[in-house]
Amino acid sequence: MPRKIVHYPHPALRHKAQPVTSIDKELHLQIGEMMELMYQANGLGLAAPQVALPFQLLVMNITGDPDKPECEEVFLNPQIVEKKGVMLGEEGCLSFPGLYQDVRRAETIKVHAYDLKGKLVEKVASDLEARAWQHELDHLNGVLFIDMMGPIARLAARSSVKKFEKAFREAQEKGEIPPNLEIEKLLAALEGRP
Ligand SMILES: [Zn+2]
Description:
Layout: H1 25-40, E1 45-47, E2 57-61, E3 72-84, E4 87-91, E5 101-105, E6 108-114, E7 120-126, H2 127-140, H3 145-148, H4 151-173, H5 180-190
Antiparallel strand pairs: 1-2, 2-3, 3-6, 4-5, 6-7
The structure holds zinc ion (ZN).
């Protein structure tokens, strides 16, 4: 089955991602697929749990432009080590197509991550880039932007969130999406757990 972006409330989005432990051909293939799906959906970033892969992996291109591969970034096992300032701004998520709401984020962040050579890199980002990184990093911990919304944005998003829940339930009833228990088993198998 071809990999695709899963929508809320798919259980993979709430599953805490495991660290990437080897940089092999399989990982490169997954990264290629994720980049492609991100561009198809006009996104700036995509985290592995959004394609039902339970790993601490994310891809980004802050320009969103597939003709600018020099702006592509891949982070393995990323961690935010420093946050500064606060900013409020609109955010969307490829797992909630069409939903945009204001979310409060740190203005500047410092991230530690591994690159595809297995080298630890330190990066500092501000503004839009810092927002995208914080959003994607949250995905690795099963945290979604609806969790980060303030009370007013959350209220405004409520009917839209309910629609996603209904659509997901209906897709499961039709057999288009496996039952949650089966999805959990697939995630465990990917992690190499019995
Ligand atoms: Zn997202």
